[in-house]
Amino acid sequence: MTLGVLLGLVLSCLFLLSLWRQSSERRKLPPGPTPLPIIGNILQVDLKDISKSLKNFSKVYGSVFTLYLGRKPTVVLHGYKALKEAFIDLGDEFAGRGNFPVAEKIGKGHGIVFSNGRTWKEMRRFSLMTLRNFGMGKRSIEDRVQEEARCLVEELRKSNGSPCDPTFILACAPCNVICSIIFQNRFDYKDQEFHNFMNVLNENIEILSSPWMQICNNFPAIIDYLPGRHRQLFKNFTFTKHYFSSKITEHQESLDINNPRDFIDCFLIKMEQEKNNPKTEFTHENLFFSAADLFAAGTETTSTTLRYSLLLLLKHPDVTAKVQKEIDHVIGRHRTPCMEDRSHMPYTDAVLHEVQRFVDLLPNNLPHAVTCDIKFRNYFIPKGTTVIASLSSVLHDDKEFPNPERFDPGHFLDENGKFKKSDYFVPFSTGKRNCVGEGLARMELFLFLTTILQSFNLRSPIDPNDLDVTPVNNGFVSLPPEFQICFIPI
Prior knowledge:
Elements: H1 3-26, H2 50-61, E1 64-68, E2 73-78, H3 80-89, E3 96-97, H4 101-107, H5 117-133, H6 139-157, H7 167-182, H8 192-208, H9 211-218, H10 230-254, H11 263-273, H12 284-315, H13 317-330, H14 346-359, E4 368-369, E5 374-376, E6 379-381, E7 386-390, H15 391-395, H16 438-455, E8 456-459, E9 486-489
Parallel strand pairs: 2-7
Antiparallel strand pairs: 1-2, 3-4, 4-7, 5-6, 8-9
Helix pairs in contact: 6-7, 6-16, 7-12, 8-10, 12-14, 12-16
């Protein structure tokens, strides 16, 4: 028997074995399209608009189905009932972090966002407690956001009403708020170090949202061997680590355990308290990645939503006019907006909710995983199986939100014009893995946007009807297209 024939037989056996394993595994899992060996269903998924592909699959296989994005199965939850049953009713069982190889290669299971088990529980609990101690949801953090809103308005005034791209300036404001919590200080908008850091954050989100990154995450073997934009992600990580490490060193040298100044100080104090615990999760690696997670999540998502808000307000000047009328009535032109105002501003509240619903920032959430073998809707899902939750399917549910593809603040208003809550409002996800900084993000969106609209009229250099509000990428984060805006002082 020649070597070529032998090799052909071995490959054929491996191919048949793969088919047999896949077939045996699929019989217990939720239904789904037949996968090809090795590549699975990847050719049937539009990597530029995964949400649309999931919606089409749900029409055939129902609200719970299985896709093979590569060799391993992924269970997809589509629609409110499926998400609630999994993340609320069975929250602990669905609280794992799913497969995300690029992030795993960088973080190695540290921090908050991409950790699991005890690490995740400890880091999440500590971060929530520390954020609350530093004022999340309280007046102290509100003062910081109001101060930054005033700085933002002053920076926007420098445009003198000329057309400008607001991307960088709108990223600076939420970044400075999270800086004050993690590092204790804010940066001047012209600071070059600040510019470099912001550029890295923006580039990371762009790379993570690209179709190439979806391929890397589903075929992790290529990460180490092929060139591509994921290499830039690793370079950016090195830059970020050096930056945070220098900040941590500065804090260690000036630490006063009786007077913690920020998140890093609190973590260092906890490290000292647990230095004799061999199983402690309070390590330098977890400090770095937890701080970095808070920084990235607290900056990019809020700034992207703010940017999208302004684009939608340019597109719908009638909505802008109604918000400004409510600002005039409740706040006036000379008092700084505060969170107490929100309950007296139902239309503005509805607009903010509708922006987040319409924008659909994280269409498919971050991947979850089941923490144990589980029977779900009469299907068997093995421990460790990745679970994708389509937030789009909830935020764009046409029964809860008539004409969901249309931007309409009326989705969150009752017949009397009062604000109407909805269980389907899940831009921050839901359950055990919901966003740690939800309270801070909601505060920032309200205070930044009302302060801008209190100070400026918004004008588009082109006809509002010609503005495109279609997301540039719909793989990881929905990014607004580039646009120009004029801030006309009132």
